[in-house]
Write a structure and sequence with these properties.
five-stranded parallel sheet, 44% helix, alpha/beta, 3 domains, 10% strand, two-stranded antiparallel ribbon, Arc Repressor Mutant, subunit A, Rossmann fold, Helicase, Ruva Protein, domain 3, 9 strands, 349 residues
């Protein structure tokens, strides 16, 4: 396997694809400033690692780095978590508490899953961004803070704005410097580097020799769409190291869906109906109209619906097969075969 390149890679990050090099370049350029940063990307792409790098490469590195998972708390708990509260502010407030913004004074606060913040609480966040001040829950005293704000989301905030779930003014305050983390399927050449990195880590943790991945197994890892991105790859490498009985990682140590053996996940149409159920409805309708059951009708209807689904997703993904496979939850090899079976080569690239 190729060696991990380190001259431009940030601590904790692995990969030297063009997309990741751009992430490293932006991170190093923006880190010394006080600009607010919005990290976007799918779950498992490494947004927290970039947030930590932005902090550690900044003049605030000696200050605290405070992470808040905004999606893990209800509105009332999140407000208290972020801004603190005074004794008696609510039933369980038996003593005053410092919030995360106060704790981040002189350092950086990382607001993960920012899209989960309620519309009401977004108003208070906007004020902190604009004025660097707030009040604790139940208090009237204004607190001034000096902290850098880094936010992250795995949703398209423009879509959230369109659905009236996210404030447009807050979005523009957060989106001063956007950094997008590419999904793993768009940087396939980094997969061998990541595999090597995780093999060494888990071999060392489990005090076993570093195994070698066979060409067949690596081909499967490169072909899989990785909807869970780097985090998913990390889990499967750890599993393979634990299960390996020799010095090799072979295909049988990979999950069935990575090997292309698991069935296609059932999808839903825009109305929320399961497409498998829709097939059954169409078959029933055909039987009612024909007056008798056609033994091949079910197969024909399933093929028709599957072809239509593939065509729609291919068009939505502009023919990009790696993205289409991820949307459908299937292996790229499986997708390629279905494209040929249904004569959809003109839709794919």
């Amino acid at each position: 396997m190729p060696e991990v390149l380190t001259e431009t890679v940030l601590d904790g990050m692995v990969g030297h694809s063009p997309a990741m090099r751009e992430v490293y370049r932006l991170t190093r350029k923006i880190a010394p400033t006080s600009a607010t940063v919005l990290l976007t990307g799918e779950t498992g792409t490494g947004k927290e690692l970039i947030a930590r790098a932005l902090h550690e490469l900044s003049p605030r590195a000696s200050g605290p780095f405070i992470r808040v998972n905004c999606g893990a708390l209800s509105e009332s708990l999140l407000e208290s978590e972020l801004f603190g509260h005074v004794r008696g502010a609510f039933t369980s407030a038996v003593e005053s508490r410092t919030g995360r913004f106060e704790a981040a004074h002189g350092g950086t606060i990382f607001l993960d899953e920012i899209n989960s913040v309620s519309y009401t609480l977004q108003v208070k966040l906007l004020r902190v961004l604009q004025e660097q001040q707030f009040e604790r829950v139940g208090d009237t005293r204004t607190i001034q803070v000096d902290c850098r704000i880094i936010a992250a989301t795995n949703r398209d905030l423009q879509d959230e704005i369109d659905e009236d779930r996210f404030r447009e003014d807050l979005y523009y305050r957060l989106n001063v410097v956007p950094i997008n983390l590419p999904p793993l399927r768009e940087r396939v050449d980094d997969i061998p580097l990541l595999v090597e990195f995780f093999l060494k880590r888990y071999a060392e943790l489990n005090k076993v020799p570093v195994p070698r991945v066979t060409d067949e197994a690596m081909g499967m890892l490169r072909a899989y769409a990785w909807p869970g991105n780097v985090r998913e790859l990390q889990n499967y490498v750890e599993r393979a190291v634990l299960l390996a009985e020799s010095a090799q990682i072979t295909p049988d140590l990979l999950p069935d869906h990575v090997r292309g053996l698991a069935p296609v996940r059932r999808r839903r149409d825009k109305s929320g109906r399961d497409l498998g159920d829709l097939c059954e409805e169409l078959v029933t309708l055909g039987i009612e109209r024909n007056g008798s059951e056609d033994s091949n009708l079910h197969e024909r209807v399933v093929s028709l619906v599957e072809r239509e689904l593939l065509q729609q997703v291919l068009r939505r993904c502009q023919g990009v097969q790696t993205k289409t496979a991820a949307q459908l939850g299937i292996n790229r090899n499986t997708l390629h075969k279905k494209i040929e079976d249904y004569g959809l080569q003109s839709e794919a690239r």
